[in-house]
Amino acid sequence: MTIFAQNTKTMKTISSREFAANPEMYLGMARQQDVLVKKGRDMFHIVYRPPVPQQPVLEPDDDLRRAITFDELLVGVKEDLREIFANGKRNG
Questions:
Q1: What are the tens digits of pLDDT across the range 13-44?
Q2: Suppose 16 and one of 8, 39, 90, 91 were both cysteines; which one would form an S-S bond, judging by CB atoms 3.0 to 4.6 Å apart?
Q3: Is the sign of the CA dihedral 77, 82, 87, 88 positive or negative?
Q4: How far apart are alpha carbons 25 and 27 in whole angstroms?
Q5: Nearest 5°: phi and psi at 30?
Q6: CA distances from residue 12 to 17, 34, 84 in whole angstroms, order as listed
Q7: What tens digit of pLDDT does each residue of 59-77 get?
Q8: Region at 88 (left for phi over 0; alpha for psi -120 to 50; beta for the rest)
Q9: Beta strand segments in the chain, E
Q10: What is the pTM of this model?
């Protein structure tokens, strides 16, 4: 039975001395292929993850300028509730 990997990339195995001599080259290489650094019996896999895009910062606009604070909202809600109870209005 033959198993094929779908997302195969080439793999480069280097010694820790090679990595220490030229880390920028191997870190750049990790963007294109898997890089394994061998030190004695240990193997270290260099994994490249693309940067996460930053969320756009929204500029103040007309909606924000018209917005009210929570305290302003609370004052308005309290006034509305007082009016509803003072007039004895009921819905339903």
A1: 999 999 999 999 999 999 889 899 999 999 99
A2: 39
A3: positive
A4: 6
A5: -65, -15
A6: 14, 6, 75
A7: 778 877 888 899 999 999 9
A8: left
A9: 11-15, 34-39, 42-46
A10: 0.46
